[in-house]
Specification:
The structure holds two protein chains of two kinds. By secondary structure, chain A is an alpha+beta fold. In chain A, 17% of the residues lie in helices and 29% in strands. In chain A, strand 13 (329-339) and strand 14 (342-355) form a beta hairpin. Mean pLDDT of chain A is 85; it is low at 1-39. Helices cover 19% and strands 42% of the residues of chain B. Chain B contains five helices and twelve strands. Chain B has a twelve-stranded antiparallel sheet with strand order 5-4-3-2-1-12-11-10-9-8-7-6. The chains are: A alpha+beta, B alpha+beta.
Chain lengths: 547, 226
């Protein structure tokens, strides 16, 4: 097996190009040396102009034992376009591979002609009849091909390693990879028999709901970097993998490249076993994750635990309103996610045991404080490093609850851990000296500005003593997220002398994801107080206005 | 006259629209004949869509579908594939229900689709005479998520008495059946639900059936307007 340890020496480069050109030339002159497997597809030439639904009706007897999802339609125009594109892709890829002839997938790309396949919504005649815009017009010269049912699922990478497995109902990509003795990590491209391609990450730190695989689907594992003599960046590799997946999607079922068992394992594929939906894997989410992380709001509206933020954010375009109560405070938060890395909004905090003003002026009205908050993600999470965010609470407000924070979050399956450092109200426990005091002793002292608000308290930001905060969040399979938090505030230095009894620095909470866009919150905070809340949120980026 | 003088002149602004008109008209009169849409496509024009008081057109059969309290009408189209047991019902929103003996067989165009099904359910007559519940299973290809060959386990039985609803009074002579369906949701978790059918003169006139946990339908066959 060749590895990436070989330096790209010029003589080798020239040989490489020469060999690639010879192979390509041979393939383009239709003198392929690779023996192609016998085709299992049936091809039909369209004899008269007609709608696809009509064609399907006319050939219903031939279609009895075929998989409608794999029905292909090709036109001469699309075939010419694909042939041109294929030639370009094969040459481009061949110039970047160490030994293109050693890669069965490159050989397959070079030797197998393009098909000219076009997408079909659903090859179900009665539905196409009723939806004429989805019912393509076939012309003389077009081709339709069909494939038998119960086709195997292929797993293959750029070296041709992988296996061919019988389709198993209820099995997810990880189940096939496990049966193939291949690791369930990194990126994969799922090529379904209808030609649809989706890219997924299988890592435990970025779970996402995955589709299953229809019979005849292919799991494309990508081109290993070690096959390239020319350095390819992430974007180029993404393009190469995507066009390879596209050619796999356009292939007729019987003409896809044949995978060979990985040399490292040396074993044939095991039977595909379906991980139970109620098994340990589903509880931990470390293997075969099928869920999307659902960050939830803290009492302060930004994504977080109860009192403390995390580095998590919703996707850009989200808008949420939350109302939270943990005596004596009630928060009404309006939060926006204008960018993937920026979260911000404003809130009113009502302090129930303090008056708004003199009784003759505002009666028994409770004290209200308005504040703005901004949280920016400095870098997103990776396989080995956490996502990191910084934020300023009570930006431009009275500074009553003013605080700043830097927080990191790392996910392992369903468990999400956060650890942060808080200044001001967020770190009121004031355990440690400010690490930023290395920039000057001015960072040691903090002025809590409690004026009328409306100005930026730049003299206070990230100043004064700090305290750590953090916690764990477990997103269960039962629409409920459990939270455990260590609060950086000990409530012994509350504004307006409103100190609170604290029996525990740990807060516990749960969020019930009641409906899409609606979360119910309950918590036990300070060891003494019950907290309740509700968040309503929507993704504004999904809305559209007819123009 | 130099060519750019022509472009700047009034002549240009008359000539260009005239040429365009002639060319476009020529296209409009070209004798390219496109194959016509099937009978289902014709019938789609008579689907009225959601309306508080729909106007039913004579000669067409309608199925009232209620989902989460919202109602819409589907029209039965004489698809080429239609048989005595298979009915094809279409909505104005490109949705199609294929019912076989009144049971959902294929569903396309909705948020959850049943692309195909393999099953041999007992007939209503068999169920009526069986006296006890009959167990059977169906294999369904579901979208989204390429959930192919999922197996539902179903127990069907006649109901001893009609449910206590206004529906029962609408078809006083109908025979009622119910089914317990053990299925899987989109996350592969077990999901159990009940289905009900009212069979009148061999036809299902009302049913409650589920396509997905969030997509349970009430299907009511409307009397054919004369």
């Amino acid at each position: 097996m060749r590895s990436g340890a070989h330096p790209p020496t010029p003589p080798r480069f020239r040989l490489n190009i020469l060999a690639g050109a010879i192979i390509l030339g041979l393939s383009l002159s239709a003198t392929a040396t690779d023996a192609q497997p016998p085709s299992i597809t049936s091809s039909y030439a369209v004899q008269a102009p007609q709608r696809l639904s009509n064609w399907l009706h006319e050939h219903k007897l031939e279609l009895l034992d075929t998989e409608s999802l794999a029905t292909g339609w090709s036109t001469p125009e699309e075939l010419r376009r694909q042939q041109h594109q294929r030639q370009f892709d094969v040459t481009w890829l061949g110039r970047r591979l160490w030994q293109p002839m050693d890669s069965p997938v490159w050989r397959w790309l070079a030797n197998t002609p393009a098909t000219g396949r076009l997408p079909v919504s659903a090859a179900v005649a009665p539905w196409l009849e009723g939806v004429p815009v989805r019912d393509p017009l076939l012309r003389v010269g077009d081709q339709i091909w069909t494939s038998p049912t119960h086709q195997p699922v292929r797993v293959i990478d750029g070296k041709g390693r992988g296996c061919k497995l019988p389709h198993r109902a209820g099995a997810y990509p990880q189940d096939y990879l496990r049966a193939c003795a291949l690791p369930s990590e990194g990126k994969v491209w799922l090529v379904q028999p209808d030609g649809r391609i989706t890219q997924h990450a299988l890592d435990a730190w970025q779970p996402e709901p995955l589709p299953q695989l229809a019979p005849g689907a292919t799991i494309w594992l990508g081109w290993p970097r070690e096959l390239f003599w020319l350095p390819v960046n992430e974007s180029e590799l993404q393009d190469i993998n995507l066009f390879t997946a596209r050619w796999l999607a356009n292939a007729r079922p019987g003409e896809a490249p044949e995978p060979t068992p990985a040399a490292e394992t040396g074993t044939a594929a095991a039977p595909v076993s379906v991980a139970s939906s109620a098994g340990l894997d589903d509880w931990t989410g470390l293997q075969g994750a099928r869920f999307a992380p659902q960050p939830s709001a803290s009492n302060w509206g930004v994504m977080g635990l109860m009192q403390t933020p995390t580095a998590r954010m919703r996707s850009a375009g989200n808008f949420g309103i939350s109302v939270m109560n943990t005596s004596p405070n009630t928060w009404v938060n309006v939060m926006l996610q204008p960018l993937d890395w920026l979260e911000g909004g404003f809130r009113y905090v009502s302090v129930s045991n303090r008056l708004y003003g003199p009784a003759e002026f505002s009666g028994s009205q409770s004290y209200k404080d308005k504040s703005f908050e901004l949280k920016a993600r400095l870098w997103p999470e990776g396989q080995w490093h956490p996502a990191v965010a910084v934020g300023i609470r009570d930006l431009g407000g009275t500074g009553l609850f003013g605080g700043e924070y830097a927080v990191a979050s790392k996910r392992w399956g369903r468990l999400d851990a956060s650890l942060g450092l808080g200044w001001g109200y967020v770190g009121n426990r004031a355990i440690w000296r400010n690490p930023l005091s290395v920039f000057g002793s001015a960072m040691d002292s903090r002025v809590n500005e409690t004026g009328r608000g409306g100005t930026l308290s730049t003299q206070s930001y990230f100043r004064g003593r700090v305290a750590p905060f953090g916690g764990l969040e477990y997103q269960s399979p039962w629409r409920t997220t459990f939270k455990l938090e260590y609060n950086g505030n000990d409530y012994r230095n509350e504004p307006q002398g409103n100190n609170q009894t604290v029996r525990s620095p740990l807060n516990f909470g749960l969020v019930y994801h009641w409906a899409p866009g609606m979360d119910l919150h309950a918590s036990w905070e300070r060891g003494t107080t019950l907290g309740l809340g509700i968040t309503v949120w929507t993704d504004l980026s999904g809305l559209s206005m007819p123009s | 006259m130099h060519w750019f003088t022509l472009l700047r002149g009034r002549f240009f602004f008359v000539l260009v629209p005239a040429v365009c008109t002639v060319l476009l008209t020529a296209c409009a009169h070209s004798n390219i004949s496109l194959p016509k849409f099937g009978p289902a496509g014709d019938a789609m024009r008579y689907v009225l869509g959601p309306s508080p008081s729909p106007r039913l057109l004579p000669g067409y059969e309608y199925l009232q579908v209620s989902v989460h309290g919202r109602q819409t009408l589907l029209v039965r189209a004489p698809s080429v594939a239609a048989t005595a047991s298979d009915e094809y019902w279409y909505s104005a929103q490109s949705e199609m229900l294929q019912l076989r003996h009144g049971r959902l067989w294929r569903v396309l165009g909705m948020t959850t689709e049943w692309r195909d099904q393999v099953s041999s359910p007992p007939t209503w007559q068999q169920l009526a005479t069986a006296g006890d519940s009959v167990a059977w299973r169906r294999q369904v290809n579901r979208m989204p998520g390429y959930r192919w060959q999922e197996i539902d386990h179903i127990q069907s039985r006649p109901m001893r008495q009609a449910p206590n609803t206004t529906l029962a009074t609408q078809w006083p002579t109908a025979q009622w059946f119910e089914e317990d369906v053990h299925s899987l949701d989109g996350d592969g978790r077990r999901w159990v639900f009940k289905q009900r059918f009212a069979v009148h003169e061999g036809h299902v006139v009302f049913s409650e059936q589920c396509i997905a946990p969030d997509l349970c339908l009430q299907l009511t066959r409307l009397k054919n307007p004369s």
